[in-house]
Amino acid sequence: MHRFAALSLALALAAPALAQEAAIRKNLAERLPNFPKIDEVIKSPIPGLYEVRVGNEIFYADEQGNHIIDGSLIDTRTRANLTQERIDKLTAIDFAKLPFKDAIVWKSGNGERKMAVFADPNCGYCKRFERDLSEVKNVTVYTFLYPILGPDSIEKSKNIWCAKDRTAAWRDWMLEGSAPTKVMGQCDTAALQRNAEFGRKYRINGTPGIVFEDGKRSPGAMNTAQIEQQLVASRAAAK
């Protein structure tokens, strides 16, 4: 009997939330026909306000979907951006599941520590980062070509990816300024498209986009000391 009573109570509490979710979905679809497909509707920390998730995008709506908000929800007590925290959780990257076959790989020393970098060959910050990264010991670096700065970046990425030794071509360009040889003939560059799709999915909006073993992300360049510090922390957290 106690189990039945508990189940009945749970269903009674869930019913209003389900009704409100249905109302939000129905009204937004009818009133905003161009609004993207809604993936999830859940309660927000504010009573009467619901989180409306579209892929990795977060919106907020009232209980009936009469109003919708596109913006950040801030906790004034802690100054935490709750919207960004939610997006960070949604776009967290499991390092072990990165598509390593689409990366350029090089290592220093025994390479026991690992990190990944999404980089554009024409990105000045990426070149500076590559120089700083060269000073780090015992690390394996997976570089995902991520040409987002224009047509020349795409062309250079294709030439680097199609080079006989793509690791040497990448590092020669980034460290020495030696332009990669123009690709001749057929070459499979589907990896570049897959990298682009991956970056969009996980909101890698700039380069270098850095991912450490524990999933920690950095949206910009780091100097050698910062890289070393995060490698140590991420290695410990990943164990």
Topology:
Layout: H1 2-31, E1 40-43, E2 50-54, E3 57-61, E4 68-69, E5 74-75, E6 80-81, H2 82-90, E7 104-108, E8 113-119, H3 124-133, E9 139-145, H4 151-161, H5 166-176, H6 190-201, E10 209-212, E11 217-218, H7 224-238
Parallel strand pairs: 8-9
Antiparallel strand pairs: 1-2, 2-3, 3-4, 5-6, 7-9, 8-10, 10-11
What would you say this structure looks like, in words?
The protein has 239 residues and is of the alpha+beta class. Helices cover 41% and strands 19% of the residues. The protein contains 7 helices and 11 strands. The strands form 3 sheets. The protein has a 5-stranded mixed sheet with strand order 7-9-8-10-11.
Task: Sum up the structure in keywords.
single chain, 239 residues, alpha+beta, five-stranded mixed β-sheet, 19% strand
- The total of beta strands comes to 11
* Average pLDDT rating: 90
Oligomer: single chain
Helix content: 40-55%
Order of helices and strands: HEEEEEEHEEHEHHHEEH
The number of helical elements comes to 7
Gross morphology? elongated
Distance between the termini: 46 Å
Strand content: 15-25%
Rg, alpha carbons: 23 Å
Query: Would you identify the regions where 5 or more consecutive residues have pLDDT less than 50?
Result: 4-14
Structural class: alpha+beta
